[in-house]
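pls design
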């Protein structure tokens, strides 16, 4: 059951077994009821789902992640079991930058940075153009490592385009810095991303008006333009960061 409020009207509709039940309803809100937002009530269909025992930890993890990628939005989790209620609030004032700083704690080698870009492009010449927003929060640490990718607020467990961009950009720019600084030992092989990720704390959050997922589980995205735009952006930001922060660059 879905109720969507826009401040003046509420539109409501019900679904069962994947199909609408009745027509879309509309009701004008009273003057003292000027609310916005959407309320969704649902129950899993036992004919479709073999296991309907969704653990509490699943909801906690989802809401914690949503608070990370939706800065300034408060998520309240009310949980009832056997007539007992518990309440948990998830909130991050500054989103992924807070999350990275908290994760690093006193183990940070460099100060956390936040980079963001809005752009638009297309995956192929014959494909329509779409908009992309991206944010990266990161720092380096010799004791903690964490890399997480999000797209349209969903956690990308397998990454896809953002992961390709991060691997390419970080290896390329750190390798370039090592070469320009003469820090490679004789006959030493080029660094790999495995070297980099051991000391990297990074969270990316991106949004696009068109998204191509790897498969139905939506654990990775395959947008070609997203990967290219992220790679170019990260290379530039890292190059500038190393130039402006020589001490941090040396520590990395």
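designed seq:
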């Amino acid at each position: 059951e879905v109720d969507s409020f826009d401040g003046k009207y509420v539109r409501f509709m019900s679904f069962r077994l994947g199909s609408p039940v009745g027509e879309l309803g509309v009701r004008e809100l009273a003057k003292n009821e000027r609310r916005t937002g959407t309320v969704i009530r649902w129950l899993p269909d036992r004919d479709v789902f073999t296991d309907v025992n969704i653990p509490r930890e699943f909801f906690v993890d989802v809401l914690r992640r949503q608070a990370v990628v939706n800065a300034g939005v408060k998520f309240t989790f009310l949980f009832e079991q056997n007539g007992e209620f518990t309440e948990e609030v998830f909130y991050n004032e500054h989103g992924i930058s807070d999350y990275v700083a908290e994760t690093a704690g006193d183990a940070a080698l460099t100060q956390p940075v936040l980079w963001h870009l809005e752009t638009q492009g297309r995956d192929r010449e014959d494909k329509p153009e779409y908009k992309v927003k991206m944010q990266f929060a990161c720092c380096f640490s010799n004791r903690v490592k964490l890399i997480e990718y999000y797209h349209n607020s969903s956690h990308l467990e397998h990454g896809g385009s953002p992961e390709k961009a991060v691997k390419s950009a970080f290896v390329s720019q750190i390798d370039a810095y090592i070469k320009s600084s003469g820090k490679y030992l004789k006959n030493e092989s080029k660094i790999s991303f495995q070297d980099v990720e051991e000391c990297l704390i990074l969270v990316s959050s991106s949004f696009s008006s068109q998204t191509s997922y790897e498969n139905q589980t939506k654990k990775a995205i395959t947008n070609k333009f997203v990967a290219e735009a992220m790679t170019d952006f990260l290379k530039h930001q890292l190059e500038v960061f190393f130039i402006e922060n020589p001490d941090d660059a040396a520590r990395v």
